[in-house]
Amino acid sequence: MDLFNHLGELALGSRLKRLSDQIMRDGSRIYQANDIKFEPKWFPVFYLLSEHAPLGVTEMSQDLGVSHAAVSQVVRELLQKKLITGVMDPSDGRKRLLSLSESGSELLPKIKELWNDIAVAIHEMINSHQSNIIDSIREVENSFSEHSLDERVALIIQERCLDQVKIVPYSEDLAEQFKSLNYAWIQKYFQVEEMDELVLSNPGNHIVAEGGQILFAQLDGKIVGTCALIKLDDDSFELAKMAVDEKYQGRQVGKKLGLAVIEAARKRGAKQVILESNKKLIPALNLYKKLGFVPICTDHQKSMYQRANVSMQLELT
User: Fold this and answer.
1) SS3 at position 193
2) What residue numbers bound the domain in which 67 lies?
3) How far is the CA of 19 from the CAs of 4, 75, 146, 170, in angstroms?
4) How many CA atoms, within 13 angstroms, populate the side-chain half-sphere of residue 247?
5) Does residue 211 share a domain with residue 154?
6) DSSP conformation letters of the chain
7) Predicted confidence pLDDT, tens digits, the chain (317 residues)
8) What is the CATH number of the domain that holds 277?
9) Nearest 5°: phi and psi at 181?
10) What is the DSSP annotation of 214-274?
11) Total domains in the fold of the chain
12) Contact 165, 218 (CB under 8 A)
């Protein structure tokens, strides 16, 4: 039995504290997952200074409705991390005026974007039910146990990143980028094979002219990834030559390309899409599984590539 459920309103304060602790733990994981060295408990002071600096500790205490000691503790930690800076008030030598440091100001745009994602996730969690506050808190707690706040924010970030990636079609002026993006990952993990050189040196003839398609991913105005759809027969296509610039990995570029290639196969009436890969390319294999591909048994000795030791298939019918 959950004692808080049994106690009802009597345990409201403790229950809110438990929920608050959950949000703080999830918040820490969100910052860590996005490589931001920041603690959730710093948020009110840091945010206030980002909007209304310079301020003294007394002013911040009044604005935030928390004790002077609590604000002072956070200020000490932010000063130690060099995210804020302080100067003496020229009109009162006993008072120090605080504002964001250069490091804090550089961090602000990135962390503001993440705050927006967190706000969306929390809004979804607390506004998806209509009930009294105790029932609402219980339902929100259940929502946390089903999918934590950091998991929800990660999904929101993924969707935001997907929206930012633009898919553009093949043109001859992009042929060299198709080649260079693929050479980068092949040379990192394997050796460039004869079939690689043949296809990558003239993708227009060997893929597009043969009934296939090549797509590119554009992000921040730059081509950062590519993927090919190679026609095998009227019912079957191969997903091949997927490559993403290392600097842009983790921003859903591969997923957007994979979805676009699968949709292109659907529009061409394909019944299945297959692919070949290698067991050492774990992130790529995980992506293919998320896209719906399943492993299949095949004779890899018949493959055109020596590195191929994994085959996967996606049924479209």
Assistant:
1) coil
2) 3-162
3) 12, 25, 14, 51
4) 6
5) no
6) --HHHHHGGGGHHHHHHHHHHHHHHHHHHHHHHTT----GGGHHHHHHHHHH-SB-HHHHHHHHTS-HHHHHHHHHHHHHTTSEEEEEETTEEEEEEEEE-HHHHHHHHHHHHHHHHHHHHHHHHHSS--S-HHHHHHHHHHHHHHS-HHHHHHHHHHHHHHHH-EEEE--GGGHHHHHHHHHHHHHHHS---HHHHHHHH-HIIIIITTT-EEEEEEETTEEEEEEEEEE-SSSEEEEEEEEE-GGGTTSSHHHHHHHHHHHHHHHTT-SEEEEEE-TT-HHHHHHHHHTT-EEE---GGGSS-TT--EEEEEE--
7) 578 888 887 887 888 888 889 999 999 999 999 999 999 999 999 999 999 989 999 999 999 988 999 999 999 999 999 999 999 888 876 788 999 999 999 999 999 999 999 999 988 887 777 766 777 778 888 888 888 888 888 888 888 989 999 999 999 999 999 999 999 999 999 999 999 999 999 999 999 999 999 999 999 899 999 999 999 998 999 999 999 999 998 889 999 999 999 999 999 999 999 999 999 999 999 999 999 999 998 877 778 899 999 999 999 97
8) 3.40.630.30
9) -65, -40
10) EEEEEETTEEEEEEEEEE-SSSEEEEEEEEE-GGGTTSSHHHHHHHHHHHHHHHTT-SEEE
11) 2
12) yes
82 and 227 co-located in one domain: no
pTM, 2 dp: 0.71
| Residue whose structure tokens are 């979804």 | 124
The length of the chain is 317
Which amino acid belongs to residue 23? Answer: I
